[in-house]
Amino acid sequence: MNNIAIFASGSGSNFDAIVQKVEKGELDVNIALLVCDRIGAPVIEKAQKYEIDTVVYRPKSFSDKSEYERAVLDDCRKRDVEFIVLAGYMRLIGPTLLQPFEQRIINIHPSLLPAFPGKDAIGQALEKRVKVTGVTIHFVDGGMDTGPIIAQEAIEVSDADTAIDIKRKIQAVEHRLYPKVIQSLFIKEESQ
């Protein structure tokens, strides 16, 4: 069974969805670690509930990004992490983590990339009055939401939809699609 680390910064809804699929036997991975960069983030309590090892680092307490990522890398290595899953992790990954985990870090983003990369993709979609947005799962590279796309799924946006409505639609897709894609990546890897 593959060991994964999940990186999250906020509420942890995708973290929760992944853990539930693991517990139901629908996702064949071991969640070895939660990495969080925000003290007090709700995802931390969720990880404690599931008894998942958790490290919480305040990046500003490190001299630079590289030192922060070396600490995270050490924690991943101690737990034999093979794959990193970003689930609402609000930091760009630097070379200290990218190099040892090349093509082994994935991210989920609430838009149909390349449209609306970065923060507040839902707000960007509303501002542009798009009729379709969605979810993208992609490999992480050195850019912001620029890595190779693994999967996408669209949702329709009505004129009456608020940001909350769109978020609900997107999360429904995310919570179903992300675990499915994670599982497919490990099946692919085992067959190689």
Automatic annotation (TrEMBL):
Broadest EC class assigned to this enzyme: transferase
InterPro entries xrefs: Formyl_transf_N, Formyl_transf_N_sf, GART
Binding site for (6R)-10-formyltetrahydrofolate: 65, 90-93, 107
Active-site annotation: 109
Tree of life domain: Bacteria
Site feature (Raises pKa of active site His) residues: 145
Catalyzed reaction equations: N(1)-(5-phospho-beta-D-ribosyl)glycinamide + (6R)-10-formyltetrahydrofolate = N(2)-formyl-N(1)-(5-phospho-beta-D-ribosyl)glycinamide + (6S)-5,6,7,8-tetrahydrofolate + H(+)
Pathway the protein contributes to: Purine metabolism; IMP biosynthesis via de novo pathway; N(2)-formyl-N(1)-(5-phospho-D-ribosyl)glycinamide from N(1)-(5-phospho-D-ribosyl)glycinamide (10-formyl THF route): step 1/1
Any one of the GO CC terms: cytosol
Biological processes per GO annotation: 'de novo' IMP biosynthetic process
Keyword field: Purine biosynthesis, Transferase
Function: Catalyzes the transfer of a formyl group from 10-formyltetrahydrofolate to 5-phospho-ribosyl-glycinamide (GAR), producing 5-phospho-ribosyl-N-formylglycinamide (FGAR) and tetrahydrofolate.
Protein name, entry field: Phosphoribosylglycinamide formyltransferase
